[in-house]
What does this fold into?
Amino acid sequence: MGVYKIKDIEVLVGIKAHTLRIWEQRYGILVPERTETKIRFYTDEELVYLLNVRILLDNGLKISKISALNPEEIRKNVAEIKLNTPAGASQEKLILALVEMDEFLFNQTLDEIIKNSSLEHAFKDCLIPFFDRIGVMWLTNSINPAQEHFISNLIRQKIVSEINHLPVPDRNSPVVMLYLPEHEWHEIGILFYQYLLRVKGVFTIYLGQSLPYDSLLIAIEKVCPDILLTSWLTAVEEHYVKSYFKQLRAAQPNLTILAGGAQIGIYKDVVSPYAITVQSSEALMELITAPHLQFSPGQQ
It folds into this structure.
């Protein structure tokens, strides 16, 4: 069972702590338990309740009316909103889908966001903030690996589905090879890069998760890509990062190597002599699609 402080609830639900205290006093909405030092804490059930309250608020109900509803009435109202206004309160719906492991709600919400914009905008404007909220839940031990795997696989399936709807580009320059190093299993970011490149008509070869170094070199020799793109999220030691890219550069002195992800950001100074560090999807697309751009190690 998750246990949340009021500041955690503020981030996850998007309602100020001050407002929550006023609701507690004025309307009797959730009287949370307190620690011995009088600090409020909330349970999973109370988080779900407040997420539902936020959905109702975003769809025009007043807090005074919501406070008068019993739990069954709240569930009924939210169920109608889920079906009839999918685009509303998207962040709250995604969190709710995570907590309750509700595949239908997650897919419905994300499909509507993509329909009204694109996968690119859905990823940047919705999924990245969603990941930030998941980070809060990890820090509070409020979600378990099963829930995280559940939601990550749904996102992965959605990106793969969108890629599959795109035509395979003609093989022209540049040819981009994408992969994750042997220790890395966090695939969503590199899959999103694959999608962005395919949308732009860039020919890509996707090698996936945890690719052994020797297999990477064999693939490079066989395919002869113009650009190699990798992403590092899992924590590693600085000496390992430096050794990996130094060895790769020595083996492939003329290959353009692009590297992104949280660990590359942390170790940017040790990576940049051997590869171009990529800080965002916008920077990646500018690098790859710029005509006649000359790449060199250390370029940012």
